[in-house]
Specification:
Dipeptide-binding Protein, domain 1; alpha+beta; 3 domains; D-Maltodextrin-Binding Protein, domain 2; seven-stranded mixed beta sheet; six-stranded mixed beta sheet; about 550 residues
């Protein structure tokens, strides 16, 4: 049933693009001041796609439609608060002042909406020179006033990843294309300005007059290359090229982008194999080898800044007892799971900060599989025979998360603990997690990747005390930990070495308290049709495709 619907939708999309091409095909404008392109991601195996015959109209339409089969939905399209899988849409509708380049590039950052920037000696004053000749998708001009308005509105709303702007004391417009930030403490504002969340620059007029509801109805008011044409919540988003995009357009770029929500991994695989989708991820690991041998599919596996954690409910019995949390941490067979299921896609985590990112430490304690130790800790906590139930929630369709739960369930059963492995849509899982901790799940399993590339992204977002739950889904409260990471963040722009030591000490607290089960660091694994050119796997923006850079 679902599969037939996808074929029907592709036909509709092709008809839509054929109509678009008649009136607004891409021109041959020169791309101005584009930052140097990073090297394209290297697939496991390059294969030349065989030529296929198609009717001229169908071929022209297919060449200009990019279809991304995405495993989860997009809960928030408001650029001021978006803090989830919506980053895929944000990254094509909106832009940031700076852009984080792929690791190994000559420069850490490239210009985006800012063409240059400078700071004073102690990193408390930052001045950005802005790109001229840019307009928002609603026709409003992009300038220093717009930057000031967008960032101040995001800060004032205080939602999502808005905490990244906490060092900012004031924003001043120097002239039409120059904006100055004064900070209350030294911070790497050029890095913050590249964040994949909360750093988007959006039209002040649209935000003031339309508000969050308008954005979440499927509207966009950024400077990016694509705008939203149609939004079917929980199903798909169709985007078309922004004709007035400052970068210009060349032949071969995509006119239409279809983001199709497909929770079933088997259907995602069928779509990428059949060519009804151009790009996807989260395919059963056992099938990757066969897909790699498919001449029509490229499999990309690259290091990432991403990990999988099981956040333990620190407020709800029996997991409010650290001994119980430590016990169940010893009850998972890490090595067996990674070798048997994940293979080259994962390595066991050392705490919450993934390998390859500053602030990571390979010296942190790692739990290992030890049921005898787990039983001793349970007995010490007053549960010699187990005798309790735990609820484990995961995103529907994520086979890795599902298999983690099923294997853990089998091991915990040996200790007399019943683990209920409960699949949920992402919105439902998150809504339950944000409810009263006493009524919420016991174990919330999810991936984390950075808003901007700093340890604070993990440590603040998931473990800093929250009055109203957002992503501290362990419900952890530790004033000493809060103070330590706040201080480390405040000196990270002036004393990276000291900040690193403090971030590592803070991680030791989390490991000692067993606030979460730190499962594994995840490689970025993506699949694309072999005729898709220009894909760059950037771990700073996981699972994001910047479609403007692609062609068929």
């Amino acid at each position: 049933m679902k599969y037939r619907q996808f074929w029907f939708f592709l036909i509709v999309a092709l008809m839509l693009v054929a109509a678009i091409l008649a009136g607004c095909g891409g021109g041959e404008a020169t791309v101005e001041e584009q930052p140097a392109a990073a090297e394209e991601a290297t697939p496991v195996e390059e294969a030349e796609a065989p030529a296929e015959e198609a009717a001229p109209d169908e071929e022209a339409a297919a060449q200009n439609v990019f279809v991304y089969a995405h495993p989860t939905s997009f809960p928030d399209l408001n650029p001021a608060s978006s803090f989830s899988n919506d980053s895929l849409i944000m990254s094509n509708c909106y832009e940031t002042l700076t852009f984080y380049n792929t690791p190994g590039s000559e420069e850490v950052l490239s210009p985006k909406l800012a063409t240059s920037w400078e700071t004073n000696e102690d990193n408390t004053e930052w001045t950005f020179t802005l790109r001229e000749g840019v307009t928002f998708q609603d026709g409003e001009p992009f300038n220093a006033e717009a930057v000031k308005s967008a960032i101040e509105s995001t800060m004032e709303l205080g939602a999502g990843a808005s905490y990244i702007w906490s060092p900012v004391e004031s924003i001043d417009v120097i002239d039409e294309y120059t904006v100055k930030f004064t900070l209350s403490y030294p911070a790497p504002l050029d890095l913050i300005a590249s964040a994949g969340y909360a750093a988007w620059i959006y039209s002040p007029k649209a935000y003031a007059e339309q508000g969050a509801e308008w954005f979440n109805e499927g509207n966009c008011a950024g400077t990016g290359p694509y705008k939203i044409d149609n939004y079917e919540r929980g199903s798909r988003i169709v985007m078309s090229s922004n004709e007035d995009y400052w970068g210009g357009w060349s032949d071969g770029q995509f006119d239409t982008v279809v983001l199709q929500i497909v929770e079933d991994p088997v259907v995602r695989q069928q779509m990428i194999e059949s060519g009804t989708a151009d790009f996807t991820y989260d395919i059963p690991a056992d099938n990757l080898e066969a897909l790699d041998a498919n001449n029509d599919v490229n499999v990309y596996i690259n290091p990432g800044f991403q990990n999988l954690l099981g956040l333990l409910n620190n407020q709800k019995p029996p997991l409010d007892d650290p001994l119980v949390r430590q016990a169940i941490s010893y009850a998972f067979p890490y090595e067996q799971f990674i070798q048997g299921v994940m293979g080259q896609r994962a390595t066991q985590a050392n705490g919450p900060i993934p390998a390859g990112l500053w602030g990571h430490s390979s010296d942190l304690f790692q739990y290992s599989y030890d049921l005898e130790k787990a039983a001793d800790l349970l007995a010490e906590a007053g549960y010699p025979d187990g005798g309790f139930d735990l609820v484990y929630t995961f995103a529907t369709g994520d086979l890795d998360e599902q298999q983690v739960g099923e294997l853990w369930k089998a091991e915990l059963a040996k200790l007399g603990i019943n683990l209920e492995v409960q699949p949920m849509t992402w919105e439902a899982q998150w809504d339950l997690g944000k409810s009263d901790p006493q009524n919420a799940q016991d174990i919330f399993v999810m991936y984390w990747w950075p808003d901007y590339v700093s340890p604070i992204s993990w440590l603040y977002s998931m473990f800093h005390t929250e009055d109203e739950t957002l992503f501290n889904l362990a419900y952890y409260k530790n004033a000493e930990f809060d103070e330590m990471i706040d201080t480390a963040d405040s000196i990270s722009g002036s004393d990276r070495e000291q900040a690193t030591e403090m971030f590592i000490d803070a991680q030791k607290m989390l490991v000692d308290d067993a606030v979460a089960i730190f499962l594994y660091d995840v490689a970025n694994t993506h699949l694309a049709r072999t005729d898709i050119q220009g894909f760059v796997d950037n771990p700073a923006y996981p699972h994001v495709t910047f479609v403007y850079d692609l062609s068929r």
